Amino acid sequence: MKTRTSNIQSPAPKLGGIEIVTTETVGMRESGFGSVETCRGIADVIGSDHSGVRFNLVTSKSDLREIVDRRPDLVILCVKYIFDDLGGEVIWLSDFFDRNDVLHSGSAFKTLEFDSNKSIAKTFLRNKGVATAEFFLARPKQFRADETLPLAYPLFVKPLDAANGNGIDDDSIVRDFPSFEAKTRSVVHSYGRAALVERVLTGREFTVAILGEGSDQAAHAMPVEITTPANKHGDRILGAEAKAANREVLQPIHGVLRSQIAEFALLAFGVLGGRDFGRIDIKMDAQGVPHFLEANLVPGMTRDSSYFPEACRIDAGLSYRDVILKIFDLTLQRKTVPATV
């Protein structure tokens, strides 16, 4: 299952058009591949191997219709959705391009819901026999005292649908009711949805980059361990501040542990219906049993910092260019295979 190549070459068929699609992500809960600059860089990488690459910074359904009218051979989606400045609606790009019969990168619309709602993903996987931490949803004043909580302390309180560690900080692990109520109130106020409250897992943490199944290969998992310094409470919390300051460390894992984490990630990715690429986050409990944390099916792609390309580099020796062209290749391979939507 593991490969150690650093020179993946993307095929160079003659294509009618390749569209790179993103939007301004500042202020968005889910920023996909990353900033506009990151997405322009991705367009440049693909353009170095293929002609006819067009970069699109879209703001409306009208912009998307212009792309459809050009009938491109494929579209690389750098974000999951856009806000239509004209119509005032949220447009999910995978759904839009599927409805218009345009080949696009990444998972189908129904699968991306598992990315955007951690509760739905955890419930679905648990019902399929995949381990995940026990959890419940909470709003301020929903519970009145310790004895009314569904789970015992310590508990981890975080947003239901935010990415990049947003909403996660040193107050996310709570050990008493006032702390629970304060963090729940903060999350609901900031994100407008119920807070996700999980049983705390105290074991090692991993993130796994996955390049999906192609016409000539099985899906390939590239796991790395994530460690971050303990805070004043002795907790190791991977929140937005730690990520922004690059305080976390990604390191390779080997042997039986690597196989165990890779297989677990591939199982979760497959059960969720992931396609082309994605990232699965995993944490062990005190007994060393892997548990699903969350799926990121349009993961960050910022060069030299985002977990997905870094995991590919650390575990498999893939360069940033290798990773981008492999994603392109996996999408292109589906051009001759009927899509499952």
Tag the structure with descriptive keywords.
single chain; 341 residues; alpha+beta; five-stranded antiparallel β-sheet; four-stranded antiparallel β-sheet; 32% helix; globular; disordered N terminus
Mean pLDDT: 90
- Run of helices and strands: EHEHEEEHHHEEEHEEEHEHEEHH
- What radius of gyration results from the CA coordinates? 20 Å
Low-confidence stretches: 1-13
What proportion strand? 15-25%
Strand order of the largest sheet: 12-11-10-13-14
Largest sheet: 5 strands, antiparallel
Put simply, the count of helices is: 10
Distance between the termini: 27 Å
Q: Look at the helices and sheets and give the structural class.
A: alpha+beta
The helicity comes to: 25-40%
Strand tally: 14
Task: Describe this entry's structure for a reader.
With 341 residues, the protein is an alpha+beta fold. The chain has helices at 36-47, 61-69, 93-99, 109-116, 118-127, 177-191, 240-244, 255-272, 307-316, 320-333; strands at residues 18-22, 53-57, 74-77, 81-83, 90-92, 135-138, 155-159, 173-174, 195-199, 205-211, 220-227, 249-252, 277-284, 290-296. The chain has a five-stranded antiparallel beta sheet with strand order 12-11-10-13-14. Strands 6-9-7-8 form a four-stranded antiparallel beta sheet, with helices on one face. The chain has a three-stranded parallel beta sheet with strand order 2-1-3, with helices on one face. Strand 1 (18-22), helix 1 and strand 2 (53-57) form a beta-alpha-beta unit. Helix 4 (109-116) crosses helix 5 (118-127). The longest helix has 18 residues, at 255-272. 42% of the residues are buried. The model is unreliable at 1-13 (pLDDT under 50).
